[in-house]
Amino acid sequence: MTxxxxxxxxxxxxxxxxxxxxxxxxxxxxxxxxxxNAGHTVVYDGDKYKLSLVPSGAVxxxxxxxxxxxxxxxxxxxxxxxxxxxxxLDPDIRVAERAHTILPYHRVLDGIEEDEKEDLAAGTxxxxxxxxxxDKMGRRGIRIGDLLDPEVLRERLEYVVPQKKxxxxxxxxxxxxxxxxxxxxxxxxxxxxxxxAEEGMTVDAGTYLQDRIDEGDNVMLEGAQGTSIDIDHxxxxxxxxxxxxxxxxxxxxxxxxxxxGQGEVIGVVKAYLSRVGTGPLPTELGGVEGQTPEYTGDxxxxxDEEELATYIRDEGGEYGTVTGRPRRVGWLDMxxxxxxxxxSGFTGLAINHIDVLAGLDEVExxxxxxxxGEELLTMPPTTEKWGRCEATFxxxxxxxxxxxxxxAEDGYEAIPxxxxxxxxxxxxxxxxxIYAVGVGPGREETIVLENPYDGE
Length: 456
Ligand code: GDP
Ligand code: IMO
Ligand code: MG
Prior knowledge:
alpha/beta; 4-stranded mixed beta sheet; 15 helices; binds guanosine-5'-diphosphate; binds 6-O-phosphoryl inosine monophosphate; binds magnesium ion; adenylosuccinate synthase activity
């Protein structure tokens, strides 16, 4: 069977930890979208692993697949694999021949366009994600399979590189270097192709995954990013260029919707909001220079909010895994979660970070929005309308700081009562049961109520 792990907010909900938590029962872990813009953290036995591209299942020694829906920077891929090897792991990673390749000019153009866009900039990770997906859709991309055939590689480069060079130089007025040099790119990427071939790392991912399922193996589909930064369902244009939602798990892995749909889809929820990037955020507390629109930083009568935001940011370690940027923080946004639960059809929830909110007198939740005199329970379809939504809040009594390691050992009933009230409110509103509750970053700091691979 399959279990799909989907971020239900704006990324960084703790997906890597949930993949690791349930990873024991999985035989194969496949990513279906995104690239090295992701930053997934696995903490096990005091060791911390930060992965951008390699599926988080690698920490448990599972076969890792980068599906056709991914965009792959071979340089990052090999760096990560080498680092894991240095740490004593032996990752078995296979890359879909249909996946697209991130080239150096994609990264350069990502940076150039972000600067150019000003208010429309998403605050990207500058890893070249958007420009690579653009080329995929424009039918001028270079796929991983193309790296294995030098003739095809050269032909593709000769077509596309002059266009990219002209774009950078003539449209944006920038000087270009070796990132736009056909010979340099050909030699470098031909070598990557050779290494991929030598290490037997390429695969027809959909066929491989289906064969494993037919043999009775368990597949986990690991989403990156989150629903509200999905290219279709997110806060366009402040989004990433792929589909983190569960539909993406079919298209991006090569498994049919009937296969993925027979399995489980777990929505990963952070007990509050965090966001690295720009765009509106109705339940935001305080703000962050350079990311919060029209942020003045003078407190403007909201010193308490700023203080609370700083507190949560520090308690939760809310600094970008990939870029180190301070993340914006806010209260839980229920319309955003209802939208996510519908878009992906969650069958279960993993709610993380309730330990971070411990010790607050009260915890607020954006239960609904007020928009032009009406109550909205879900997100409006345009970001401009979303920006005009005012959150209407519900208040929950806070819960105390406790020894979370003990709680994790003792189980769900050991969670402070007020925190359980909060969790059950979320589950009721979303109509999906709680499968796991995160009370700390470690594998052992999670309370498991349900293992999706049980009862197949
Ligand atoms: P991902 O991108 O969704 O995989 O999440 P990230 O790894 O980028 O960010 C989540 C961060 O929160 C990581 O540092 C995790 O180790 C940490 N984390 C995950 N679950 C919990 C939790 O329940 N409590 C706390 N305090 N930290 C958590
Ligand atoms: P994980 O998998 C949080 C955000 C960027 C930016 C927008 C577009 O760790 O949850 P991109 O580089 O993808 O073109 O940037 O998306 N973003 C993420 N935010 N977590 C992520 O991944 C993200 N990946 C991209 O900050 O606003
Ligand atoms: Mg992350």
